[in-house]
Amino acid sequence: MRRIIASLLFMLIGAGGMYAAFEYHLIQSKEGWLVVPKSQAGLRDAYVDIREWRAANWKEHPRLAQSLIDDGKGNLIIQSASNGLLDGVFQLPNKKRSAEKEESSVKL
């Protein structure tokens, strides 16, 4: 009897986990953990870590983006899409300076 009860308990836990995976996104962002209802049921993007995402990543996950917008968390898309936007602008002078340092050290 004990095994039957344990089996039923684990089946219920598994069924609950599958239901949650089908109906919700578990998202890890810079703001912390979020549970967002999915716009369409499915197992795609059940868990997503968006802390280092760029705009190209959002193009690959339109359902996740739509779910965030529907839940009022669209600001996370803007924040993560702009992560690498200005990196090239600020790194360019540093590369030139390091190249100049190498040339000056070679000339010495």
UniProtKB/TrEMBL annotation:
This is Uncharacterized protein. It comes from the Bacteria.
